[in-house]
Structures are given as structure tokens and as C-alpha cells.
Amino acid sequence: MPASLSFSVATPGGPRTARVVLERRGAGRPLVLLHGIGHHWQAWEPVLDILAVDREVIAVDLPGFGASDALPDGIPYDLDGVIRVLGTLFETLGVKRPDVAGNSLGGLFALELGRLGLVRSVTALSPAQFWNEAERRYAFGVLSVMRAGARALPPSLVAWLARGAAGRAALTGAIYARPARRSPAAVVAETRAMREAVGFDATLAAGNSELFTHDIPDIPVTIAWGSRDRVLPRRQGVRAKRVIPGARLVRLPGCGHVPMNDDPALVARVILDGSR
Prior knowledge:
Elements: E1 3-9, E2 16-25, E3 30-34, H1 45-52, E4 56-60, H2 79-93, E5 99-103, H3 105-115, E6 121-125, H4 133-152, H5 155-162, H6 165-172, H7 184-196, H8 200-206, E7 221-226, H9 235-243, E8 248-252, H10 259-262, H11 264-274
Parallel strand pairs: 3-4, 3-5, 5-6, 6-7, 7-8
Antiparallel strand pairs: 1-2, 2-4
Pfam families: Abhydrolase_6
InterPro entries: AB_hydrolase_1 (IPR000073), AB_hydrolase_fold (IPR029058)
Organism: Streptomyces melanosporofaciens
């Protein structure tokens, strides 16, 4: 069962309380998993039990997403604000320099944690902020359409659509190459997560003009990209490799923007290989 954890975070205006929901499984060296914008920790469900055979896996609902609370007053939804909360979360959990894997927005956070020396290794699956301006506008447009659809469709209609493969494709085909593999219950839950994500708009606004431009020379970094990513084209992986020359760049054949559902065994192997 997911756990709810409250802890104090330092801000310029004094300490504030954050509350984060997370799922912990397995035993071994800690591996933290960070989802993308509008999603929740259950995005990692297809790979959790595979990873938990060898590792203690900690899948986090990012602040303002899933069942976690919004960021406290005084902490913005930018890179610095979220990383401050994640760093404090690690301290509260008693995990010092865990391995971390992230997808999309979570991949960006994973890279920043690596740059700051807060983690032992990074695996970033289709990380954000390696786009050009046209690609950024396109990605934000896709995400905004998904958000608008999730908010407009009545829950009863979402549940009806999710029963069939065509309906699951309509609801999640932008992020999965194989949406029919996602269960109806999972599609209903992640559509609700997108609809109720209180941090969505502020997070999108915070990334309007940002690029990730820092090398991460001191720890292992893996950057993996789905060959069928319809949100962030895989050519952005080549740009990421130029920014982080020592990174291992891996292609995920047949996978979409959220590849854990499309090929769980491959994604789990890439994460474990990158965090040995």
C-alpha cells in the first residue's frame, strides 16, 4: 500500500510542510522512480516488481501530482523548488544518494539531482528540456490537449472508453505506443490523475523557456528514448548526448513516450544496467 509522508522543507519564508505519497517495494540499494507531468507513481507499475527483485524501489507521486499535496506556499514549481523538496524527501526517508530513474519531467528532475550530486546514478527516459522551440510548443500542445480532454470527459465516459482497445488508444495513445496493453482500470486512474493534477499548469509555465545545458561527468548517466515517442521526438536524445557526452544513449524500439508500459522487461533492464 502507498505511504503518505509529511516533512518540513526550508524556504526563504521559513519552514513549510510538504506531504508526498510513495510506494516502496523490495529490498536492496534504494532506487527512486519519478513520473512525468500529469501522471502518478503508478506509471511505473509495469516495472516495479521486476526492479524490486534486486532493489528497494521507491516510486514517488511528485508534489502537485497523483495523491501528493500541492507544493507548499513559497516553493515554486520550477527545477529549484521541486529539487529542494525531493532532496529533503531523501533525507526524511534515510536514503543517501539513491539511484534515480525518471520519465519526461521526472527524467529532467533525475538529471538535475545528478548534477547536484544528490544521487548515485541517473536513468532518464525521454527527459524534458532537450527540445527546440517548435518541439517544445508541440509537446506542450499535446499535453494540454490531454489535460483538457481529461477535464472535459465525464468519468462515466472515461470508464466506458477504457473498456475497449480503441478507447484506451484515444485516451492514452499520445504517450503509449501500445495503449491496448494498459488495463482499463489503469487508464481510468491516470486520466483522473491528469484531470486532478493541481501542479500541472504551474509546472508547464515553469518550463516555458528552459533548457538543460549541464554536463554530469561524475556519475553514470543513461538516457533512453522510445523509437515511437510522439511527445518528444527521439532526435532529442542526440542533443542530450551532446550536452552530457559521457552518457550512455539507449534506443527503446517500439516504445512510446512512457515506455514502461510498452516494454517493461526492456525498460527494467536499462534501469538496472544503468544503476549497477
